[in-house]
Design brief:
The complex is a heterodimer of chains A (about 250) and B (about 625). By secondary structure, chain A is α+β, with helices and mostly antiparallel strands. Chain A folds into 2 domains: about 110 residues, Beta-grasp domain (Ubiquitin-like (UB roll), Roll); about 130 residues, Fumarate Reductase Iron-sulfur Protein, Chain B, domain 2 (Orthogonal Bundle), CATH 1.10.1060.10. Chain A has 8 helices and 7 strands; from the N terminus they run ββαβββββααααααα. In chain A, strands 2-1-5-3-4 form a 5-stranded mixed sheet. Chain B is an alpha+beta fold. Chain B has 16 helices and 19 strands. A 5-stranded parallel sheet of chain B has the order 5-2-1-9-17. In chain B, helix 4 crosses helix 11, helix 9 runs antiparallel to helix 10 and helix 13 packs parallel to helix 15. The longest helix of chain B has 25 residues. Classes of the chains: A alpha+beta (about 250), B alpha+beta (about 625). The structure holds flavin-adenine dinucleotide (FAD) and FE2/S2 (inorganic) cluster. The site of flavin-adenine dinucleotide (FAD) has 44 residues of chain B, from helix 2, helix 5, strand 6, helix 6 and helix 11. Flavin-adenine dinucleotide binds next to helix 2, helix 5, strand 6, helix 6 and helix 11 of chain B.
Chain lengths: ~250, ~625
């Protein structure tokens, strides 16, 4: 099939960017989206031109490194799928696709389709952990965890930190990302001692790092390649308000 | 070069405890005066960096991804072993030790493996305390499953995302230390060389992958946890960025490279679909618990599946290995898949595939149970191939997956360069010639959480360090060499992309040094690799400059190293004139086609020493003795 791409090209954070058109003939339906871009890049390199920059690593939908907008949708049209796992059979001959980087104040563009997502790491550093230095752990089965809780916790822990939720949110909020971690740890007995502290610190870090506020639009949930539920946000808000309340006691 | 494994004396089950007691300690107040560089943020590097920082050392941590959470450990699916014996099915530290030595086909160091089995239980405790959401039973205790040919259930798992959850545990501990200022994290930064001062590892040279800035970092010790080198074969289950540069540069500075030819081929990957293929995707081995592997009995049988009656299907693993069936170890499963495809009985495009069929499992257990067990894997398969494995069998084929070889380390995980430690997949230590499923995660975390933090303390406490400042001649020299190499690559204006040359190398390696090897083929590869390397330097093109984001420059730099390592892999494979584990020399097999070891001549580690450009490397032998697990031919019949 034949695909027309309009790709955001921007040399670095300082220079302005613009869309550039590429016609891609002979796309195989078995290619992944990134393999299709590899082929485009091979063509550019052969002409001595700079290839399109995009982040990727595992190409298995788990590292969270890939991600950009395809026709306004984070990771493209297929629900629950990262762009590295999206295959060309989901498109049709003659399709015209617009590729843009994640757009958010907290994610400055580095080059073309790649952005700086280190703000997400800073949210984790603020409190997204259980403080248990190596060696200080009790015997693993000493603390039973009900299966249902473990499963719910795992649902939230499946977040790959790709930033699609931020990109999809009209307010560029990182609430789904932050809430996923608050939920993962907050559901487990091990996570209880720091539960209040964690919610307060992580929400504060989210605000400090330039992310917007959540206004319950749920675009994040629709864009999340791991289908993390916005119920996690409700949970985070409960923890946050409960903690803010008790810290005023 | 002297190889001294420094295995402590005493009974095997007491070695580690007594050794820990003998190790010198760094006074708590002095720890902050030491800086340790940790390259890598995978299970090995991430756990080490966090643990060292918790102890009070200053840590500089590096990775090439944009976040430490993205190291390729994230992609491990199946699980992690530990000798907890929770299912009460007869497991023990001794049994895990025994299985690992035997599984490695008697090419690992007994003392290291025993320590690994001992520590395995602490790892699970640590991970659970960090909040890793392992699978649970209804009573709230941890669930286990049997994995990759083990006859006990000792594998802990978090759905099909065990690596992800373990890595996030280590990452969270690491981020906590970053937040506390104890670790300085350098993401999107690639180590390009190692700096030695007075024969000791004292720093690294890096390139910032966004700005192109090249700089030196100084420390008292350097730890490499940079993963495996499977990408030498271009197509593998590794991430696109996985590379050998850090260990290769260390090798060229004097670290011995052990058993480079020990590569593991995973039997259950999705077959290649076209020449644009950029990587291969693993389908977890756990699928073999319920899926049945077969090919048509007749050659080039093109009948539709439902027209091939059961009697004309060859469930070749069940037939040949009645007691293990579809659960034989990886090397055995892979070789058998190749054999049936070589006979012309392979399925799918190009005949390079075998069926992994769930029809019987669905009949026996119902779709619901199969979906619960393997749903995410089935979805992934469908996304990639467009075929629904609930209705048609999966097609699978072996692919390069893991490298047992790596930098040689002693019992303390120190390489032949004083002060250079190597952990995780990057070292050669515990898996011998074949790694068992769910043992790499265990080893990475054992090294990082529980071995290195002790052993490195002994080195720091007993070494007098010369002050090395930014103007030190050795720093300037190595940095200059890195700049020179980078400049040469940036000036390459040939006609071919690095990837296209890498594909060529990969194909040669897969054909001549893949699942089955022989002297003639290895000889051919050894003649061709220098030729490809020479063409690489003439024909590669690197667009853009060195002072910016430049993926083509990164790829060319990594490929230059893969092209050199490839030669060492083949040299080692030729030299090891026996079959063992993942290294199958066609000249050495039993009448039934099983790997035939030669313990008389090859019961040793082959550690290669670099002797300068153009010179043949020198091989040193570390003899292996087996006092506890008796040398026997592996049998899975
Ligand atoms: C698809 C897949 C599934 C697997 N499943 C299992 C399983 O179920 N059970 C099991 O036990 N094992 C499994 N394995 C094996 C296991 O995952 C790996 O062996 C293990 O995770 C390696 O960990 P590591 O920390 O050594 O390296 P990695 O996790 O690969 O980390 C390497 C780190 O080094 C950094 N790095 C590399 N080079 C440089 C450089 N030059 N400069 C700076 N940084 C650098 C990277 O950025 C990264 O942070 C699997 C492997 C794969 C590929
Ligand atoms: S490249 Fe890893 S999730 Fe897409």
């Amino acid at each position: 099939m034949r695909i027309t791409l309009h790709v955001w090209r921007q040399k670095n954070a300082k220079e302005a960017g613009s869309f550039v058109r590429y016609d891609v003939p002979d796309v195989s339906e078995h290619m992944s989206f990134l393999e299709m871009l590899d082929v485009v890049n091979e063509g550019l390199i052969a002409k001595g031109q700079d290839p399109i920059a995009f982040d990727h690593d595992c190409r298995e939908g788990i590292c969270g490194m890939c991600g950009f907008m395809i026709n306004g949708a984070a990771h493209g049209p297929l629900r629950g799928t990262t762009v590295c796992q999206l295959h060309m059979r989901k498109f049709s001959d003659g399709d015209e696709l617009w590729l843009e980087p994640w757009r958010a104040k907290a994610f400055p563009v580095l080059r073309d389709l790649a952005v700086d997502r280190s703000a997400l790491d800073r949210i984790i550093a603020a409190g997204g952990f259980i403080s248990v230095p190596t060696g200080s752990a009790p015997e693993a089965n000493a603390l039973p965890v009900p299966k249902e809780k473990a499963e719910l916790s795992m649902d939230a822990a499946a977040c790959i930190g790709c930033g699609a939720c931020v990109a999809a949110c009209p307010n560029a909020s990182a609430s789904l990302f932050t809430a996923a971690k608050v939920t993962h740890l907050g559901l487990l007995p091990q996570g209880q001692p720091e539960r209040s502290r964690r919610a307060i610190a992580m929400v504060a870090a989210m605000n400090e790092n330039g992310f917007g506020h959540c206004t319950n639009l749920a675009e994040c949930e629709a864009a999340c390649p791991k289908a993390i539920s916005i119920e996690t946000i409700a949970r985070m808000n409960r923890d946050f308000f409960a903690a803010s309340f008790s810290s005023r006691d | 070069m002297q190889l001294d494994a420094k295995v402590p004396s005493g009974p095997i089950e007491k070695k580690w405890d007594e050794h820990r007691f003998d190790l010198k300690l760094v006074n708590p107040a002095n720890k902050r005066k030491y800086t340790v560089i940790v390259v890598g943020t995978g299970l090995a590097g991430g756990s080490a960096a966090a643990s060292l920082a918790e102890l009070g050392y200053e840590v500089e941590n590096f990775c090439f991804q944009d976040s430490p959470r993205r190291a390729h450990s994230i992609a491990a699916q199946g699980g992690i072993n530990a000798a907890k014996n929770y299912p009460n099915d007869g497991d023990s530290i001794w049994r895990l030790f025994y299985d690992t030595v035997k599984g490695g086909d008697f090419r690992a160091r007994e003392a290291n493996v025993h320590r690994l089995a001992q520590i395995s239980v602490n790892i699970i405790d640590q991970c659970v305390a960090q909040g890793v959401p392992f699978a649970r039973e209804y009573g709230g205790t941890l669930a286990n499953r049997s994995f990759g040919g083990a006859q006990v259930s000792r594998t802990f798992y978090a759905r099909g995302q065990t690596g992800q959850q373990l890595l996030l545990g280590a990452y969270q501990a690491l981020e906590r230390q970053i937040g506390l200022g104890q670790v300085r994290m350098h993401p999107r930064t690639e180590m390009l060389d190692l700096i030695l001062v007075d024969g000791r590892a004292r720093g690294i040279v890096t390139r910032d992958l966004v700005t192109g800035k090249v700089e030196c970092h100084v420390a008292d010790a350097v730890v490499l946890g940079t993963g495996g080198y499977g990408n030498t074969f271009f197509l593998s289950t590794n991430a696109k960025g996985s590379n050998c540069t850090a260990i290769w540069r260390a090798y060229k500075r004097g670290a011995a490279f052990a058993n480079p030819c020990y590569t593991q081929i995973h039997p259950t990957c999705i077959p290649v679909s076209g020449d644009y293929q950029s990587k291969l995707t693993l389908m977890s081995e756990s699928l073999r618990n319920d899926g049945r592997i077969w090919v048509p009995s007749k050659k080039e049988d093109t009948r539709p599946l439902d027209r091939i009656p059961d009697a004309e299907r060859d469930y070749y693993l069940e037939r040949r290995y009645p007691s293990f069936g579809n659960l034989v170890p990886r090397d055995v499963a892979s070789r058998n898949a190749k054999a049936v495809c070589d006979e012309g009985r392979g399925v799918g495009p190009g005949g390079l595939g075998v069926y992994l069929d769930f029809a019987d499992a669905i009949k026996r257990l119902g779709v619901g149970v199969v979906r619960e067990r393997y749903g995410n894997l089935f979805d992934m398969y469908e996304r990639i191939t467009g075929e629904d494995p609930y209705r048609v069998p999966m097609r699978i084929y072996p692919a390069i997956h893991y490298t047992m070889g790596g930098l040689w380390v002693d019992y303390d995980l120190m390489s032949t360069i004083p002060g250079l430690y190597v952990i995780g997949e990057a070292n050669f230590s515990d898996h011998g010639a074949n790694r068992l499923g769910a043992s790499a995660l265990m080893q990475g975390l054992a090294d990082g959480y529980f071995v290195l933090p002790y052993t490195i303390g002994n080195y720091l406490a007993t070494t007098k360090f010369e002050k090395v400042d930014a103007g030190h001649a050795e720093l300037r020299k190595v940095e200059g060499e890195v700049r020179e190499r980078t400049k040469k690559l940036v000036e390459s204006r040939g006609k071919r992309s690095a990837d296209s040359i890498h594909r060529e190398l990969g194909k040669l390696m897969w054909d001549k040094c893949g699942m089955a090897r022989n002297a003639a083929g290895l000889g051919e590869a050894l003649a061709k690799i220098p030729e490809i390397r020479e063409r690489f330097h003439r024909e590669v093109t690197v667009t853009g400059s060195g002072e910016e984001w430049n993926r083509e420059l990164e790829k060319a730099g990594r490929l230059a190293d893969h092209l050199e390592l490839a030669e060492l892999i083949c040299t080692d494979a030729l030299e090891r004139n026996e079959s063992c584990g993942g290294h199958f020399r066609e000249e050495h097999q039993t009448p039934e086609g099983e790997a035939l070891r030669n313990d008389q001549d090859f019961c040793h580690v082959s550690a290669w020493e670099y002797t300068g450009p153009g010179n043949k490397p020198v091989m040193h032998k570390e003899p292996l003795t087996f006092e506890h697990v008796h040398l026997t031919q592996r049998s899975y019949k």
